[in-house]
Write a structure and sequence with these properties.
The complex is a heterodimer of chains A (256) and B (283).
Chain A: E1 4-15, E2 18-30, E3 35-39, H1 46-54, E4 61-66, E5 69-70, E6 78-81, H2 93-98, H3 106-118, H4 134-147, E7 152-156, H5 164-181, E8 184-189, H6 192-198, E9 201-206, E10 211-217, H7 229-244, H8 248-253
Parallel strand pairs in A: 3-8, 3-9, 6-7, 7-8
Antiparallel strand pairs in A: 1-2, 1-4, 4-5, 9-10
Chain B: H1 8-29, H2 32-55, H3 67-79, H4 83-114, H5 116-130, H6 138-145, H7 149-173, H8 177-185, H9 190-226, H10 233-242, H11 246-274
């Protein structure tokens, strides 16, 4: 029994043109502490998949189980990082991280302090979100999710809106956190390099209907180098998968 | 992790530095006193020209008395007349009406904002009543409640009700739906959802409603007092008009203006304190 299990998952949307199959027969088993990246062209349902795992979308067929328990709705077990940081603008960074927990509790206060160090926001505890850069705000959002000790961290293209430099910094931070906490992570992206750089396994998805085409195991030691020969081979392998699906137009959108 | 902390530190340093520089620059530009004086230049100039024009009899003293004679009339009313008493009467009317109307408006706005069922029941009626001008109901209020305090306080309450109602409603309905998803993922209780998400998010609108309600209450007060009363600043004005005491009329108007501005600044003070998280253009 895997830590996170997805079995026979299907999802259809009702639109004006009729039924659209967003996801079809998704099977995936994720081990505890694994870092999985999900990659695919836009419209392949990868974000929908993540929302279903998070319990934000309950209108799907099939079973999602975390630690042996079926997912019924959103909960703090499943940390969710959105594409935008979505911090509460009226609260300081530390209050955003604590959110519905009170900072008057010493335990919470200590944990918040620790997390601020982990995501490298020292000195910004009392800053308001508008004073932060995009990368810093996203790090605060990650700290907010980690405070709840989630069993799984679900990340929906979290670095998609960041510039290339900040993005690779954020990838480093995420790997640091992962090495330190060994949190199971599911990371949705449309960037092939990002997918290979982070993952234990890359899940390749395809559109119409959204389905898993192939799962590629990345057996490279960390820290990885994007210019490395094996890294490039993985890149070609994944590119080939997309070409096989003959989705040239969609590949374009995937930023290849 | 070859460069674990190396990339993070310099970024933060740069941030800290640029923040300091910004503060320095702001200090030079927006000194409190220089802002104050910049605001005073224009009114002082007008007052001076007015005083001289009156002094050299370029304008009629009965139509537009000089600032200095308005001021001496103010001192006279304060010492010999019972200006303070009239002011107190007006003040209590305004506060009473504002508290009744404002509280009801806020409660109704919050209720309608929180529940679409309440919205469907109450909002159409309230929106219809909202379009009736406050001044148009004066005759009706006089017929119902006479010339006494009740009709005046109720008129002010009606003026204060709608700005708060509309803005509280709007504030609650404009909470970012994306933040609601965050509240769901973080497992906020209903209570936390209200105190941590909905109310802070609606606060800018509620405070704006408060300011508009204060203005509307003030307007209703003047209308109520001018329509017939035996005390209050409005009475002072109508009474002085009958005897062509233009200076007293001016004193009354100025009191209305100064107090209106003061009450507005009062709310703005809280706006600045509570909404300092907002990013807005400061010019």
């Amino acid at each position: 029994m895997a830590f996170l299990e997805i079995r026979d998952l299907s999802k259809t949307f009702l639109s004006e043109k009729g039924e659209v199959q967003a996801l079809k027969d998704i099977h995936l088993a994720v081990e505890n502490g694994e870092l999985i990246t999900v990659i695919g062209p836009s419209g392949c349902g990868k974000s929908t998949l993540l929302k279903i795992i998070a319990g934000l979308d309950n209108d799907a067929e099939g079973i999602v189980e975390i630690d042996g328990k079926e997912v019924k709705g959103p909960s703090i077990d499943k940390g969710f990082i959105f594409q935008e940081p979505r911090l509460f603008p009226w609260q300081t960074v530390e209050k955003n991280i604590a959110s519905n927990f009170t900072l008057r509790n010493k335990e919470v206060r200590d944990k918040v302090k620790e997390l601020i160090q982990l995501v490298k926001l020292e000195g910004f505890a009392k800053a308001y979100p508008r004073e932060l850069s995009g990368g810093m705000a996203q790090r605060a959002a990650i700290a907010r999710a980690l405070l709840r000790n989630p069993k799984v961290l679900l990340l929906d293209e979290p670095f998609g809106a960041l510039d290339a430099f900040t993005r690779s910094h954020m990838q480093e931070v995420l790997l640091d956190i992962w090495h330190e906490n060994k949190t199971t992570m599911l990371f949705v992206t449309h960037d092939i390099d990002e997918a290979i750089y982070l993952a234990d396994r890359v899940v390749i998805m395809n559109a119409r209907p959204g389905s898993i085409q192939k799962v590629v195991k990345i057996n490279l030691p960390h820290p990885r180098k994007k210019s490395n020969k094996t890294f490039q081979e993985f890149r070609h392998l994944i590119l080939n998968e997309f070409e096989k699906a003959d989705e040239l137009e969609l590949m374009d959108r995937a930023g290849i | 992790m070859n460069n674990k902390a190396g990339w993070a530190q310099p970024r933060i340093l740069v941030q800290g530095k640029s923040k300091l520089r910004l503060k320095e620059l702001k200090g030079i530009r927006d000194n409190k006193w220089s802002v104050f004086f910049r605001g005073m230049i224009f009114p002082l100039l007008v007052l001076l020209m007015w005083e001289f024009a009156g002094y050299y009899q370029l304008i009629s003293e009965t139509l537009l008395p000089r600032p200095s004679s308005i001021f001496s009339s103010f001192i006279e009313l304060l010492t010999a007349g019972n200006l303070l008493y009239h002011f107190q009467v007006s003040f209590l009317r305004a506060v009473g009406g504002f508290l009744i109307g404002g509280t009801l408006g806020l409660i109704a706005g919050l209720a309608v904002g929180f529940s679409s069922k309440v919205e469907h029941t109450l909002d159409p009626t309230l929106q219809m009543l909202r379009t009736i001008p406050t001044l148009a109901v004066i005759p009706l209020f006089i017929l119902w409640f006479g010339f006494g305090e009740v009709s005046k306080v109720l008129l002010i309450a009606k003026g204060a009700f709608f700005p708060l109602y509309v803005n509280a409603f709007l504030g609650i309905r404009s909470v970012d739906a994306k933040l609601f998803d965050v509240a769901k993922v973080l497992e906020f209780s209903r209570w936390k959802q209200i105190t941590n998400l909905i109310l802070p998010s609606a606060l800018p609108n509620i405070l704006l409603g408060l300011r508009l309600a204060l203005g509307a209450a003030w307007l209703a007060l003047v209308a109520a007092e001018l329509m017939g009363s035996s005390e209050g600043i409005g009475y002072l004005i109508t009474d002085a008009r009958q005897f062509s005491q233009t200076t007293v009329v001016f004193v009354g108007i100025i009191i209305f203006a100064v107090f209106g501005k003061a009450s507005d600044s009062f709310v703005r003070y809280f706006e600045r304190r509570w909404l300092k998280w907002r990013e807005s253009y400061k010019g």
